[in-house]
């Protein structure tokens, strides 16, 4: 016959001192849910021992810490993965703007050469040699004597051809600047949205952690009160 000073736990079916008996009604909901996960039949009319309750309290705290560490590890993995993928909008923008047709490439190269000191020096030396050759070497009896009508014709044709090519390059530069402005707007908008989402996630995480920490503090206080009660 069972002694009145002991009771049988509804979890382990072991006998414990009646002073260690804890009713399921007094157990906090998170701890009770954890117990019912292992023992679905454990309801408000059941009892367990204080040491079994402490075991589930420790398990609850341990699970919380494991989840938090896992969330941090997942966050680090996602950040590293995004860096390795290199799928940022900036790289896409640079690739799109860098694409050029053959005509655009020629126009850019001509404009770059025509607007450089290399072209000025090269063409200055060419004109000087042309003039010196016709005046001093061919004694103004060569293929282009003074006033150098052929040279003027060449310069006029060069200017007539060079001007539209430079304008083509300028139009392309303006188009590139417009595309860059559009992409800058897209990047700024994307950054703003991501910052807003990040703030919302941080607020949610802080609220979630505060609730969990408060719950853990309550559990720890209950455990300390139980220990003090047993010591008394």
UniProtKB/TrEMBL annotation:
Annotated protein name in UniProt: Membrane protein
Keyword tags: Membrane, Transmembrane, Transmembrane helix
| Record-annotated membrane-spanning stretches | 119-139, 145-168
Q: Which InterPro entries match?
A: DUF1003
Q: Does the keyword Transmembrane apply?
A: yes
| Record keyword Membrane present | yes
The cross-references to PANTHER family, in alphabetical order and at most eight, read: INTEGRAL MEMBRANE PROTEIN-RELATED, MEMBRANE PROTEIN
